[in-house]
């Protein structure tokens, strides 16, 4: 007889671990099966190690630039092995935290690779053998892995994925990054700060192609000023080894060009982790490698759900977690507490970038009449104090109703401040409703109040 659970979750990333804990809190007998480490990509090979390295690089830059605050720090240097250790330690602490939460909430953590079998059974294969479990409900949260471009040379030893770059204990002299999305610009920021010569090759006409155009253009200028070489509309054709260098061949403005560097990072996106996830007679409907789900995240197999990077939609940790919460709440017959359709997107560059909802251009494409309120952060007191005056906050609201439909920001602490707009968009709040709450002084948040005021007749600190 196989052990029976109410809920079995396959994968303990931010989608799976949150779904499992929420299900257990709602009274379900729950197991989570994980082939590697708890925390998934996010804690081990994604958000957390990346942000730890970004933080270290920022501290390094602040130390070098502290003279402007009257503080002397001479010969500021860094030890990359120590930065590496700090990143690993941060990750380890968070992974242990998740494991502690499983224990504390009565979730059975089962090590091994899970395969979905027919009749809501799951086979788990581990070093200690094989077992079959069954459950009333199964949540697939197996996440994703780096996508490798189907071009020549991607199997060369110096062509890395983000997983491999995280394992490097030294800073490369030079790095060419294929792709100009979020992962690319974040790695570029860190390594350029630490002395690496970075080149970005992006096939589309701009970096961060999914973001507001003004933000992409500004970021390109800022990164170029920091010495990062950026080529857009540059389609990489292949990579070749040449001595201890790798040559990326690309076509830009119909001309063949090349970029040489010590390493190449392929950062062109991620694809779902479905290897061995399904038995042949228990494969749900798929589309271009992704598991197809309905609005309840149920797959074509009744009682089997899929969330996170496995399905279509934003491949983000908080989106995966919110979907996990929705599924657990649905199973318990509770009202769903979170709006999974309002997903903030953040980029942890300096200045930070954050957005939610639609941009002005997208509103135009959709035929929605909107008004835009913009505030330039150089007129914000806190930004002046910290000398982080660069940036702006833009709010997009429906012309007639004043309902906020989107916000884009590029400024210090944008990734924290976007929360105000997520709440506004998720609750269909109007400009005047969001303006009702005063903001503390001096804070970066005052910039939000000013951008809202701009829509209501004019920002205070603007002529
Ligand atoms: P994952 O986190 O991929 O977890 C899936 C888990 O399932 C893994 O632990 C895997 O081992 C396990 N698994 C797979 N198959 C099986 C199986 N058959 N049996 C058992 N276990 C299995 N997102 C953000 O929101 N913010 C960020 O700042 C951010 N930064 C990122 C930086 C980088 C460099 C990268 C690569 C990603 C970043 N992301 C970020 C994206 C984020 O990491 C993912 O969207 C998120 O981890 C997806 O969560 P998930 O639970 O769907 O899958």
UniProtKB/TrEMBL annotation:
Main subcellular location: cytoplasm
GO molecular function, one term: flavin adenine dinucleotide binding
Binding of NAD(+), residues: 179-186, 202, 269
Active site: 441 (proton acceptor)
EC number: 1.8.1.4
One term under GO cellular component: cytoplasm
CC cofactor note: Binds 1 FAD per subunit.
Alphabetical UniProt keywords: Cytoplasm, Disulfide bond, FAD, Flavoprotein, NAD, Nucleotide-binding, Oxidoreductase, Redox-active center
Disulfide bonds: 42-47
Cofactor needs: FAD
InterPro entries associated with the record: Class-I_Pyr_Nuc-Dis_Oxidored, FAD/NAD-bd_sf, FAD/NAD-binding_dom, FAD/NAD-linked_Rdtase_dimer_sf, Lipoamide_DH, Pyr_nuc-diS_OxRdtase, Pyr_nucl-diS_OxRdtase_dimer, Pyr_OxRdtase_I_AS
UniProt cross-references to NCBIfam families, sorted A to Z: lipoamide_DH (TIGR01350)
PANTHER family per UniProt: DIHYDROLIPOYL DEHYDROGENASE, DISULFIDE OXIDOREDUCTASE
The protein's name: Dihydrolipoyl dehydrogenase
Organism field: Dorea formicigenerans
């Amino acid at each position: 007889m196989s052990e029976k659970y109410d809920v079995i979750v396959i994968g303990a990333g931010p989608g799976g671990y949150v779904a499992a804990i929420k299900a257990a809190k709602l009274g379900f007998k729950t197991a989570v099966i994980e082939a590697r480490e708890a925390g998934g990509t996010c804690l081990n090979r994604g958000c957390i190690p990346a942000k730890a390295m970004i933080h270290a690089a920022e501290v390094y830059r602040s130390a070098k630039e502290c003279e402007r605050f009257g503080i002397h720090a001479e010969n500021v240097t860094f030890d990359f092995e120590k930065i590496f250790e700090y990143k690993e330690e941060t990750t380890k602490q968070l992974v242990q935290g998740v494991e502690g939460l499983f224990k504390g909430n009565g979730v059975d953590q089962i090590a091994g690779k899970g395969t979905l079998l027919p009749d809501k059974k799951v086979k788990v294969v581990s070093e200690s053998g094989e077992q079959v479990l069954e459950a009333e409900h199964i949540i697939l949260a197996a996440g994703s892995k780096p996508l490798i471009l189907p071009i020549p040379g991607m199997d060369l030893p110096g062509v890395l994925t983000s997983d491999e770059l995280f394992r490097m204990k030294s800073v490369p002299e030079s790095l060419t990054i294929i792709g100009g999305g979020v992962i690319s610009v974040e790695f570029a920021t860190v390594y350029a700060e630490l002395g690496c010569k970075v080149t970005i090759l992006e096939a589309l006409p701009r970096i961060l192609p999914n973001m507001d155009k003004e933000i992409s253009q500004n970021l390109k200028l800022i990164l170029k000023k920091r010495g990062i070489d950026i080529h857009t509309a540059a389609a990489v054709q292949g990579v070749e080894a040449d001595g201890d260098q790798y040559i990326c061949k690309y076509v830009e403005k119909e001309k063949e060009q090349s970029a040489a560097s010590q390493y190449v990072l392929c950062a062109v996106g991620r694809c779902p982790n479905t290897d061995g996830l399904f038995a042949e007679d228990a494969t749900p409907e798929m589309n271009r490698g992704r598991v197809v789900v309905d609005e309840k995240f149920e797959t074509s197999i009744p009682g089997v759900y899929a969330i996170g990077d496995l399905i279509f939609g934003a491949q983000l940790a908080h989106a995966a977690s919110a979907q996990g919460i929705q599924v657990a709440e649905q199973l318990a017959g509770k009202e769903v507490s979170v709006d999974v359709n309002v997903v903030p997107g953040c980029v942890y560059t300096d200045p930070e970038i954050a957005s939610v909802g639609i941009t002005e251009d997208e509103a135009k494409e959709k035929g929605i009449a909107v008004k835009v309120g913009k505030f330039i952060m150089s007129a914000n007191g806190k930004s002046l104090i910290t000398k982080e005056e660069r940036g702006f906050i833009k709010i997009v609201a429906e012309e007639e109703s004043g309902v906020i439909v989107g916000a884009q920001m590029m400024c210090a602490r944008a990734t924290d401040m976007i929360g105000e707009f997520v709440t506004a968009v998720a609750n269909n709040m109007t400009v005047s409703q969001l303006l009702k709450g005063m903001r503390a002084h001096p804070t970066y948040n005052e910039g939000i109040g000013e951008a809202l005021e701009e829509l209501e007749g004019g920002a205070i600190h603007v002529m």
